[in-house]
Input
Amino acid sequence: MTITTEKVLVDHLISFESHQSPFECAIRGIELPVIAEFERDGRLSCPDFKMTDRVVEADGAERTRTAFPNISRLTGNHVLTAVQSDVAPKGKRVAVLFSGGPAAGGHNVVAGIRRILGPDNTLFGIKAGPLGLMLGDCFEIGLSDVDGILNTGGFDFLGSDRTKIKTAEDMARVLATVQKFKLDGIIVVGGDDSNTNAAFIADYLAPHDCAVIGVPKTIDGDLQVGDLVPISFGFDTATKIYSEIVGNILQDTPSSRKYWHFIKLMGRSASHVALEVALQTHPAVTLISEEIAARNMTLSQVVEQIAEAVVARAASGINHGVVLIPEGVIEFIPEIKALVRVSNEFMAGDDVPTASMAARVQRFGNHLNSDMKILFAGLPESIQTKLLMDRDSHGNLQVSQIPSEELFIELTEKRVAELDPAVKFAPLNHFFGYEGRCGAPTRFDAVYTYNLGLVAGALVVRGKSGYMAGVSDIASGGKGVAIPLSGLITTERRSGGDHMVIKKALVEMESPAFKFFESRREAWAKSDMFSSPGPRQLWGPLGNQVPMTVALNLGAESLGFLIGR
Ligand code: FBP
Output
């Protein structure tokens, strides 16, 4: 190679820096069809919204009405649907923020909002989440600023955080930002806790004429409202990325013929991620936390189930396999759940936050009754300390940091040796979480989020407040809908107190997706029936697929989706 050619190559490689890889350049061009009501004569057009007869209400609606008097009254907990309009609002000033963990497609939400606002309205980006809202850390987003972030993964355009806006002082700081930037509306892109935050802010800001709209984001998939919000955005991308890696590992197992891989998958409490990856790859064992809770299984029963699969496969000459473990499983095993509940109350004690970890472990041990003391003492130190870690600002135990995959390996190893000492059992552990949260969105997430942005932007400039934006009818063109936030809120016990939060959607035992998994898992356990779905496809017919769990639960006839015309 001559020096000149090398220079050409080096310049070429340098041109990839700062998000200009050939892949990133190509995905910016993915076509983004839009819902019919948002288009007129081939151009974006801002619809209005009409109230439907459909009412959404969670348990304890009376309590919610008292806690959220303004938005409950404004929305009446009725669902809205988009309708075409001839008049587009002008002069509105809107701000958008990301809240919680990143999820693929967030940038398209911002792009959708920016474009539906058009040149006659102003959009501000709030830096680094709810904390940025309180600090008034905003910058103006121009129409051309969103071109470069289209279809890219991550939240880096704005950044995110998990601050809970809870006190009167917090709300006053939010109001100060609203007044400083003369905001007519705020859009909160977040999961269940962040949308709960949005509901509180919407209620507080109602007398100040500032609308607040939420957008359903989270890779966990636990923010769902039936057909109105069939899935939160980011789930499809994350599960397709995890499925690719799990598929590769499954392919390796009968090749190397020696390892059992224990893979923990992110997804906090719900097991939607684990279930989806199981449907896409067919591993030997998949734990579903909600099933463990429904069947009241003890830790040793769960371990027995894994150990029996290991021994049975060994009897057929298979000394390898994959076990999928949902991130939050530990909180669903009844005896550990009880321990977590006591630890939550304990952690809410005034002096606990300042105590060292060693002191917490000792004091917590003394605080327990005799059964729990035995259980806690029997847990590996790595689990004990994580149970006593500081909660996040919404009062959640940080389950992603609990090495449950190591716990299951340790206990399975012991039990397999008891069942049959001749069985070869060589375990390896993995945790897939951050690998999948920020990947470039799948086509489904790209199109879905762009349209969610259009819906959220249109709602806020129309002055609608206290709703979560939604896109329903994803297999037949899509419909822009608005779901009343106050209708989604219920009471949950966290950090030693009752809190009003949006109810998490967990895996239901009667759901078609779970039933299908249940009907196939024995076959997958007995022999290698895995499949390797490969990398996510952004072009061509395979790019057009929704998650399998979503298609099954919606009763769809195929995996395809159709948003736009
Ligand atoms: P969100 O609810 O904010 O969407 O969280 C998504 C998630 O990926 C969870 O699955 C996980 O428990 C959590 O974030 C871990 O987040 P972090 O380590 O960034 O706090």
